[in-house]
Every structure is written in C-alpha cells, then in structure tokens.
Amino acid sequence: MTHAQRNQKILNAIKDETKRGLVSKKAARDTLIKEGIYTTSGKLRKEFGGGKTPKKAFAVA
Question: What is the sign of the dihedral through the CA atoms of 32, 34, 38 and 40?
C-alpha cells in the first residue's frame, strides 16, 4: 500500500465517522465521548479546556 492509498483510507474513515456524528445531537455527543473529548457524564475534559471556572465579565459603562 502506498502512502497515497493509506492517506486516502484515513480520509475516508474520517469522512464516515463525521457522517455518523452528524446524524443527531446524541450521535454527535456519543462521538465526542468515544473520541475522549467529553467525559461520560458530558463534561469537557481538562485537556480541552474543561474544569476551568469561567471568567466574570465586567460591565463597561
């Protein structure tokens, strides 16, 4: 298998997974959990910015 063939297989796999993830909100959430971006409880993992306390916005008059 050449590099070009391997790369095409990878791109096709990404394309297929994206199609499955875009079917519904639940499918998208399940995909993000499976990929390790979200925890099973639905929280964003620390590696991706989760667990931080949001900064308070100050009103400017």
Answer: positive
